[in-house]
Amino acid sequence: MNSNAQAFNLRHQRLWLMPQKAIYWQKKKILLVADLHIGKSGHFRKSGVAVPQEVAQSNLNKLNDIIELTEPEHLIILGDLFHSDINNEWKQFIEWRKNKRQLEVSLVIGNHDILETQNYHQGLINVFKKLSIDPFLFVHDINALNNHDKNTFALSGHIHPAVQLKGRGRQAMKLPCFYFGKKYGVLPAFGGFIGTHVIEPTEDNDIFMIADSKIISQNELKP
Amino acid sequence: MKSGGYQKIERWFTQRGWEPFNYQREVWGAFLSEKNGLLNAPTGSGKTYALYMPLLINWIDEHPKTYTELADNGLQLLWITPLRALARDIEQALQQIVNDLEIPWQVARRTGDVSSYQKQKMKEQMPEVLITTPESLHILMAQKGYKTYFTDLEAIVIDEWHELLGSKRGTQVELGLSRLKHLCPNLNIWGISATIGNLQEAHDVLLGTDDTKADSVTIEANIEKDLEVQSVLPDDVEQFPWSGHLGTKLLPKVLPIIEESRSTLIFTNTRSQSEIWFQKLLEAKPELAGRIALHHGSLSKEVRRWVEDALHKGKLKAVVCTSSLDLGVDFAPVETVVQVGSPKGVARFLQRAGRSGHQPGSTSRIYFVPTNALELIEAAALKTAASQKVALESRDPILKPYDVLIQYLITLAVSDGFKPEQIYEEVKKTFAYQTLTQKEWNWIMDFITTGGQSLTAYDEYSKVIQKDGLYKVIDKKIMRRHRMSIGTITSDTMMSVKYLNGAHLGSIEEWFIASLKQGDKFWFAGRSLELVRTKQMTAYVRRANTSKAKVPSWMGGRMSLSSNMSQMLRHKMHQAIEGTSNDIELKTIQPILDVQNEWSTLPDDNELVIEQTTSREGHHLFFYPFEGRYVHEGMSALIAYRISQLTPITFSIAMNDYGFELLSDKEIPIEKALEHHLFSDEHLVEDIFSSLNDTELAKRRFRGICHIAGLIFKGFPGQQKASRHLQSSSGLFFDVFDQYEPDNLLLQQAYDEVLSHQLDEVRLRKALKRIQSQKITLKTTERFTPFAFPIMVDRLRERLSSENLIDRVKRMQLQLEEHV
């Protein structure tokens, strides 16, 4: 495993938290990412807003790199794979995906995933509302969980979490993070050209921040 | 030999017992001999008559027999005004005159305030006189077949040109004029400006670099009014706060001023300050209820109009207002003006003073209310400035803003389409774009046609396309979005505030409403309100009977002291040290200056004082160049950057008009830095650019540029959801351009704007040169001095770091949920 990843044990499973904003579940060879928002730059450009085209290519390159690094058997996307209506970036994504036929790809539907189910199927992508692989439940938005689901540990996206740090001399900064509470965890947004939302964790949450290409646990901070 | 029209106009004056001023006749003469020009005249001096009458003289002379007959004459006069609120008063004045003269002309407004039904009617039949804002002029140009509106246009008048000149709205006017000059080759172009430091330049910018400038004139009205300036002083300066910008401490002393005057305007610097003053006035003197009112830009037009009418009729004892009442027709009953807090510049102070004393033979009277101890020095400076006729501030025109040009080109593409060669020629002749290169033009054309990049297989960029030799927008959605976003004033998304029965109070920034829960109370429009619910973009409220309510803190740009004012301030400091002044304000502040002198030293005008102190928060350095906020913004970033090159260190930076603070959790090697030419003006631009990369300044500047260039779209009113997938923040745009397209002109514009407008490179360089010739005094103080304290408590801060991110992170703490 790459040296910048950080091991985190959860429900007797070892998860590797990666500074590329992904989780690798080594035992099951599953790679988890959330909130890719592919097609966002294309959606903007098609509507006459000149976002640099490279944003799209860079997203796909990042995904490709981390798959080559971890060599998973199964990629699970925790929602918001595609930003909006279909556009050419979807075609580009599907071409890429079809060159990786040995990789199983599953999508837990998010609020942005408004394409027809057949689009996903044509792209060889399994689609779920929720996906359960013991001991975890994969879902996009933890607010969509019902009581029945609350016995398992949920892993989710949607929030694009970040935390605020403060220091002496009135220093402050905001970093994207992985969040783990008692019942569920939230992954940072994978895609570029996407904002973050600042959360205020409590002391018994586990927070892993992403600074440059490193993962920093809250335990490493000044006491 | 005076023409028939001229005589008729003179008779109109005589019938009213008036006599035209000399300057008015001078303007008539110039206008009638088809000269363009700039009229320098204050409000309330009859400037409207100066420019309206010659148009009517011409009309009567050209139609001696038929001018009283109803006809379809087409648009004759465009009158551009910066404020919607002014448009209505001008409309009434201009309509009255043609009615008196029995000319059956229609005078109308087209501003954001006017209903779409009215606008639709206008499309079918243009009025003879149209009063509009720079934005609405561009919106007209975004309509299909817009050229036909201007077929008969004789003249265009730009009112309050000094207000528009230093802003991108001024550039919009320049672009609008460049188009109109082409459509109407014989157009008469006139501007009206109050006195500013650069009148000649104002004239040149208005008329552009083509031959419309030849044979043009600048005419000065030379109308002087007596002025009386007084400061409101605290009885006990030791009890007077060292910091703060509210000024309510002196409110009891303002009550008698209101009492003694027929009607008083109380100017505050922010909307929240006006709300607070209104509330405190009522608390202090409940019998004022119903006789005082509140006026600021977020209140609904009905509320504002009611206040203006009541003011005209002399029904109000006082109105608490913001710059919303800076301009416009005069309110005759106003005898006194109160300015709360620093007006930041001499010109603004005098302009506000001029809003009082319009009865014949009366004097303008203004009281200055300092909001903290140090503003007493400003009070002394303002008084001297008003009596000695110091040079007034200049309004520097904006040069070559790419964002405004992009918006203009899309406007033309949305209406009838444009030919690039032709528009390039027109644009090049404006003052703003005279240095625009072919290369820059090509980049802009690429930006709007291909999204700034060569097309790749997957790209579907679409905005402006070429069709039959014309560049056009054909996508209906893009057209609609563009028409909705024309303008250069960028503000946050606003929510309207309504009572449950639907009565509209005004609008507040969405983020403020979002911070409230149902049942929370807040002050708005001078009342305490309870939030009942929010629905779409409306906050429904009911009256709350409590004075314990939040006051929205509207974020507004913090203005900086003008260079004239900072110079005066340094001079007053020097006088205070020498003891050579008799200013009552300086005598009042003396005990505080004594404290400053005892704990540290008083900065004389030939020295720069630096104070060094430590606290629980870390190590503080305070510098006092007295150069105004904007220069301090640049200088502090520069000094922080230069120190950070000596050692890895992180700074938090704060500033005000008197000085700035560098704060770090590590010891700051200031002695060592002072040996290394800390204040050198060599490598200034490189060092500033390097420091900008580490601060948020350019990123913040980019926000406005994104809006104007059409990258950010706020959504249609009432249907925010439809465009949800097109929402993004300017910060994200900045990051992706910075990463993938660093030579994007809009990004460069952000840096240029920071350098030339915000940090004011020219002033910064001058200030550094001055400091180099000064003595530098480094004092170690045990606590925060009276000069340091107001800077230290400021929470709005810049940051700059030369440390490794991970090292920094590890010294920080996670911000955890607050346990209630």
In short:
The complex is a heterodimer of chains A (223) and B (820). Chain A has 223 residues and is of the alpha/beta class.
Radius of gyration of chain B: 28 Å
Class from helix and strand fractions of chain A: alpha/beta
CATH architect. name of chain A = 4-Layer Sandwich
Gross morphology of chain B is: globular
Strand order of the largest sheet of chain B: 3-4-2-5-6-1-7
What would your notes on this structure say?
- The complex is a heterodimer of chains A (223) and B (820).
- Chain A is an alpha/beta fold and 223 residues long.
- Chain A has a single domain, classed as Purple Acid Phosphatase, chain A, domain 2 (4-Layer Sandwich), CATH 3.60.21.
- Chain A is built from 4 helices and 16 strands.
- Chain B is of the alpha/beta class and 820 residues long.
- Among the domains of chain B are: 4-220, P-loop containing nucleotide triphosphate hydrolases (Rossmann fold), CATH 3.40.50; 227-388, P-loop containing nucleotide triphosphate hydrolases (Rossmann fold, 3-Layer(aba) Sandwich); 494-543, no CATH class; 600-695 and 761-807, no CATH class.
- In chain B, strand 16 (494-499) and strand 17 (504-509) form a beta hairpin.
- The interface between A and B is large, with 57 and 58 residues.
- Strand 11 (161-167) of chain A pairs antiparallel with strand 27 of chain B.
Task: Using brief descriptors, characterize the structure shown.
heterodimer, A: 223 residues, alpha/beta, Purple Acid Phosphatase, chain A, domain 2, nine-stranded mixed beta sheet, seven-stranded mixed beta sheet, 18% helix, globular, B: alpha/beta, Rossmann fold, 30 helices, 41% helix
